[in-house]
Amino acid sequence: MSEEKVQKKTLQIPEEKLIALGINVEYLKEHDPATMQALENGRKTKLLSLTADFGGQKINTAAKVHLWEGVNGEVTPFIHTVRPMVNFKSLESKGQMFAPDEVTMLLDKKTGMLPYPLELNFSGKRVDCLIGVDFETNEIVFKPISNVFVPKAILGVDISQEQKDIVQHGGKILLTGLTPKDGDKYNAVVHYSFSKNNGDGGLAFKVPTPKLIQDVRLSEGKGGTLDRSVLSQNSEKSRDKSVSDIIAPVKIESKKVATPKVGRSK
Predict the structure, then answer these.
(1) What confidence category does residue 262 fall into, taking pLDDT thresholds of 50, 70 and 90?
(2) What pTM, to 2 d.p., does this model score?
(3) Alpha-carbon torsion, ordered 81, 94, 220, 181, to 10 deg
(4) Residue 141: CA atoms inside 13 Å, Cβ hemisphere, count?
(5) Where do runs of H (alpha helix) occur along the chain?
(6) Mean pLDDT (whole number) for 81-99
(7) Given a cut of 90, is residue 217 above it in pLDDT?
(8) Strand order in 139-144's β-sheet?
(9) β-strands 153-154, 139-144: how paired?
């Protein structure tokens, strides 16, 4: 199943900065155009083999990379290292603490995100964001709902404003009669997922099941504006607990990451 993509500005890749991280840029150019395109579009790459410098000692590690263009036009690599566990305190600086039921939802590898947005504080500006977990790096990730791209049509099916709002708020919609270029028409439950695009997020398509149809009806019944009070049975009591109470029992085993072919530059 596929999704339509949004066009993004192409960034100038700072090759010397990537080489300094131990990334074989020439190999990427010749053998990994998908990673090059992710870099050019400012999206996360897959896990790459990097070389970190700790006090003059070179250490090999695995991380995802995305490029960031500053106000002065300089493009800089941002490193997403593999963490030993998910840090649920990471959004405290942005004004959010997770209740235990929200931790459970975030750690559910079938979804890996909350089915509603939370308000984050960016230098005094409050922004509603979808929040999830990138299980390849154990990183808490978020996306402002205004940046959740939903096209006007998907595989020949028009998307209404109400359906767009539902997806942007973490809900699910049912699309019938999707028509791929090659193949038969099919139906799918569509929603936003941080499992897409190396943890950057994108539209996910799933075969309708009774449980997913129930989720669709819940989303439609709330007009795409689910919040904590809808799905959290004990949300008020949960948020009275300290963050340490939430984090203490929550730990996931770190994964062995296969070293990609993009090795260090010689």
Answers:
(1) very low
(2) 0.78
(3) -30
(4) 28
(5) 15-20, 25-31, 33-40, 100-106, 161-168, 210-221, 228-231, 235-239, 243-247
(6) 94
(7) yes
(8) 118-122, 125-134, 139-144
(9) unpaired
Q: How confident is the model at residue 222 (pLDDT cuts 50, 70, 90)?
A: low
Distance CA 145, CA 128 (A): 6
Cα dist from 142 to 41, 90, 94, 96, 233, whole Å:
18, 11, 11, 12, 24
Largest CA distance in the chain: 59
For the four alpha carbons of 5, 115, 207 and 168, in that order, the dihedral sign comes to: negative
Q: Which two tokens stand for residue 4?
A: 């339509």
- The torsion region of residue 13 among left (phi > 0), alpha (psi -120 to 50) and beta comes to beta
Tokens for 71?
């106000």
CA distances from 71 to 55, 76, 127, 132, 194 (A): 30, 11, 21, 28, 27
